[in-house]
C-alpha cells in the first residue's frame, strides 16, 4: 500500500499481566474503510484507542502520515484533532443542548469564533438529518439521535481519520440503521475510517477490508467477500458460524 494514512508496526499492549495486543501490523490507506470483527475481549477496542494515543503502546510504532505518534513524549493534542473517535457511550453533557455539545471542543480547543463555527455546525446537523433537534437536550433525543450527535461532535473537529468503537452496541435494533446511514455517508465522501463492529451485514456491504481479531492478533484479513464467504482460518470460520446463525 503506497503511503498509508495510518500504519501500525509490531504494536503490543498489556494491562497488568494480561497481554491484549500481541504485535499488531496493519496499514490503513487514505479513504479506506476497515472493519474490525471478533469476539468481545479480542483486542478491537484497545487497538482503536492505541491508534490515537488514548492508550500508550508498550512496544511498536503507530505512524500517522509517516510520523511515529507512539514515541514517548510526543505531543498528542494535535493528533487527536486529526483522528476522531466515537464510542458506544454517547458521553453528551446533559445540561447542554446538542448544538452546544458539538460547539464546545472547536471553540475551546481550536479557538473558533461563533461567527465561523455556528454555520459550520448547523450544516453538520442539517447534513445528518438533525437540524430540527440541535437545540434539544440529550434527554429529549433518542439513542440513535444522541449517537448521531456524538458523530457530529467528532466531525466538528475536522478530522482526517475517524475511529468508531461499537457505536451501535448500546442502541435498540430499530435505531441502528440511522447510525449506519451516517457511516455510509462518510464512506461515500472518502473519510478514512476504522470500525470495531458486530454489524456483519454492514461490514460485508461497505468495508474495503475486514480484519478478524482473536486473542490480540489479526488472525485473518481480506476483502469482505473473501472473509465472509471463504475464510481460511479455522478460528474465523468458527466465529462467523456462531455469529451468523
Order of helices and strands: EEEHEEHEHHHEHEHEEHH
Lateral strand order in the biggest sheet: 6-7-8-3-9-10
Radius of gyration: 18 Å
Apparent shape: globular
Structural class given helices, strands, pairing?
A: alpha/beta
Helicity, as a percent range = 25-40%
Distance between termini?
35 Å
The biggest beta sheet reads: 6 strands, mixed
> DSSP strand (E) fraction?
15-25%
Name the average pLDDT: 93
Could you give the count of β-strands?
A: 10
Number of helices: 9
Poorly predicted runs are: none
Descriptive report:
This protein has 9 helices and 10 strands. The chain is an alpha/beta fold. The chain has a 6-stranded mixed β-sheet, sandwiched between helices. A 4-stranded antiparallel β-sheet has the order 2-1-4-5, with helices on one face. Helix 3 crosses helix 4. The radius of gyration is 18 Å and the shape is globular.
Topology:
Blueprint: E1 6-15, E2 18-28, E3 33-37, H1 44-51, E4 59-64, E5 67-68, H2 77-82, E6 83-86, H3 98-108, H4 114-127, H5 143-155, E7 161-165, H6 173-188, E8 192-196, H7 200-206, E9 209-214, E10 217-222, H8 224-229, H9 234-243
Parallel strand pairs: 3-8, 3-9, 6-7, 7-8
Antiparallel strand pairs: 1-2, 1-4, 4-5, 9-10
Key structural traits:
single chain, 245 residues, alpha/beta, 4-stranded antiparallel sheet, 10 strands, 37% helix
What does this entry show, briefly?
The chain has helices spanning 44-51, 77-82, 98-108, 114-127, 143-155, 173-188, 200-206, 224-229, 234-243; strands at 6-15, 18-28, 33-37, 59-64, 67-68, 83-86, 161-165, 192-196, 209-214, 217-222. It is α/β, with parallel strands linked by helices and 245 residues long. The protein has a six-stranded mixed beta sheet with strand order 6-7-8-3-9-10, with helices on both faces.
